[in-house]
Amino acid sequence: MNVIISKQQKQLIGTRYLPAVSIILPFEPKMSLKAEVEYRLKIAIGKVEKELMRNYSAEKAMPVINKLHQLARELNFNTHKKSIAIFVSPLVEKVLYLDIYLEEKIVVDESFELRDLVNSKKQIIQYLILLISGKSSKMYLGNCSKFILIKSNIPDSLQAFEKDNPDKVAPCSDQHINKEILVEKFLHDMDEGLTLILNAYPLPVFVMGEQSVLVHFKKTTKNEKSIVHYVQDNYEEAAESEIREAMVPYVAEWRKLKQRAVIQEIEKARSDNKLVYGIKEVCKASTHKNGRLLIVEKNFMYPVQQGCHVDNIHKSDSNLHNRFYIKDTVDDVMEKILVGGGDVEFVDNDLLKDYGQIALIRYF
User: Fold this and answer.
1) Do 140 and 190 share a domain, yes or no?
2) Is residue 258 part of a domain?
3) Residue 242 falls within a domain, yes or no?
4) Is residue 257 part of a domain?
5) pLDDT of residue 178
6) What's the CATH code of the domain at 326?
7) Predicted pLDDT at 80
8) C-beta separation of 326 from 335 below 8 A
9) CA distance 347 to 229
């Protein structure tokens, strides 16, 4: 467990209310024993109590400790969520049940930071591999530990495709040209299968195969925005260990790869009319519970005046004497997306300069 005790002076809404506690835990009671989850929570609360009593007076510490115990007693163990985030201060008590995997973390500080929560996400490395040749194709879902062969409607072999689709190949006396046409038709069907799989698994795609086949596939594919790299070699008879070894240099730079894939997702969502961007539009869309993925530049913040209608949202200078001041409307948007079952990704500064530094991909 990572216990972080910050000594920096931070500011809450309007005035300072101390202390503020955040407990972030994996929480899958449907997958684990309830007693195990309760034990981990008990240990976390015990650590918080120790820190609070050491750094604050009993008058300030006990109300927060009592709220923590009360929230622990009221947790919903029938949820199918993956993680929980508990926030408590003398004035605030909140539990978020989230559909994302989070690392275990405790923060005893003077404010709540939704960004800390997002940064606690487990970096789950997942990608798709389309292994193609002129004779066969395979699709894998890859991660750090294993490959899973995905069943799809993609033909298992060129011979099967030729047998099932005799009318797709134009009559031709030149056998070489005939074969080229057949391969292109075959690759077209594989690409259609990839489209279906990407609807279920919107992940970065690696396409592996010999140069001649890859050249044909690049001309054929309609999924170029999801393909992050073409790996050139003959992997038709390769063992899984050989394929995994070929992926090592690409997985090693996963963060850059993931950011590139996220930008490609944005571009695809824009062409599919599933994208909203800019703080005003994203703020409005976040209330509809239709947000699949919120993408934010890591340093982007947008202070606003509370009480403004969302259509008239405007940036405000930080004025901590104004009791209507909200520290960051981006945090508010992130919370709405996470509670609604969506996800949040941070990207490097300037990557979203064409999208107002914040973008939201909708489910529909």
Assistant:
1) yes
2) no
3) yes
4) no
5) 56
6) 3.30.1330.30
7) 83
8) no
9) 20
- Give how many domains the chain has, as a whole number: 3
HSE (side-chain half, CA atoms, 13 Å) at 251: 17
- Same domain for 132 and 212, yes or no, is yes
| Three-state helix/strand/coil letters over the chain | CEEEECCCCCCCCCCCCCCEEEEEEECCCCCCCHHHHHHHHHHHHHHHHHHHHHHCCHHHHHHHHHHHHHHHHCCCCCCCCCEEEEEECCCCEEEEEECCCECCEEEEECCCCHHHHHHCECCCCCEEEEEECCCEEEEEEECCCCEEECCCCCCCEHHHHHHHCHHHCCCCCCHHHHHHHHHHHHHHHHHHHHHHHHHHCCCCEEEEECHHHHHHHHHHCCCCCCEEEEEECCCCCCCHHHHHHHHHHHHCCHHHHHHHHHHHHHHHHHHCCCEEECHHHHHHHHHHCCEEEEEEECCCCCCEECCCCHHHCCECCCCCCCCCEECCHHHHHHHHHHHCCCEEEEECCCCCHHHCCEEEEECC
Are 92 and 170 in a shared domain? no
pLDDT class of 177 with cuts at 50, 70, 90: low
Q: Residue 56: is its pLDDT beyond 70? A: yes
| Residue range(s) defining the domain that contains residue 345 | 263-362
Residue with tokens 């209330």: 287
* pTM (two decimals): 0.68
Tokens of 212: 């001649």
Give the end of a domain, one of 86, 119, 152.
119
Rounded to whole angstroms, the Cα distance separating 136 from 52 reads: 62
Instruction: Say whether both 151 and 95 belong to one domain.
Output: no
**What's the token pair of residue 230?**
């073409």
